[in-house]
Amino acid sequence: MRVIAGKFRSRRLRPVGGLNIRPTSDRLRETLFDILTAGNPLALRGSVWIDLFAGTGAVGIEALSRGAAMVYFVESAKGPAELIGQNLRCLDIQAGFDLLREESQRALRALEQRRIQPDFIFLDPPYQLRATYGELLRALASSSLSQRALVVAEHARRFDPGEKVGKLERRRRVEQGDAALTFYRRLGESTGG
Q1: Which positions of the chain have pLDDT values less than 70?
Q2: Nearest-5° Cα angle at 18, 12 to 24
Q3: Total domain count, the chain
Q4: Non-local CB neighbours of 11 within 8 Å, separated by 6+ positions
């Protein structure tokens, strides 16, 4: 596993090493960020991210590498949270992140109370926790997300987290191997992303 592009390009991330997590593959991460930057390497500069079920931290670290100003890594499991910390230290990332070691819904409420306005929310629960997708999407749909916020769900290709969930509407779906990415925006917002 490596960082694809940006400041930390080609730097390796620590291996999962027996932890029960499924990191987002390099190839799928590359696809995600190719879509988000659409040929503009500066597109993510200054952005704010929430990385739910952060696992190894690979998605949030990729965002930081590409110029994100702040990433909130949310990971409740002790082993993966420690791995995120190790990966951040390994790359000498000392600022621009917050590691929240708590359950995703609780973290979302806490971030909303702090008036955090993310540009991107990436959610990647274990694929077998299908109900979790709906719960998180509903929580995000009823939150005070900014009008420009883009929610991206990684999930099993054969699973559909939904066309519409509350005020969120699917704008795009990309499949790659056994995985898929579904992109959501608030109803009535522009179709970019």
Answers
A1: 15-20, 188-193
A2: 50
A3: 1
A4: 2, 3, 90, 91
**pTM recorded for the entire structure:** 0.92
- How far, in whole angstroms, is CA 51 from its chain's centroid? 4
With H, G, I as helix, E, B as strand and everything else as coil, classify residue 19: coil
Q: What is the pLDDT of residue 188?
A: 64
The Cα–Cα gap between 113 and 134 comes to 22
Q: Which pair of tokens denotes residue 142? A: 């009823």
In the chain the beta strands, taken as DSSP E runs, fall at 48-52, 70-74, 97-100, 120-123, 150-156, 164-165, 168-176, 179-186
**Residue 60 lies inside a defined structural domain of this protein:** yes
CATH of the domain at 109: 3.40.50.150
**Domain encompassing residue 82:** 26-186
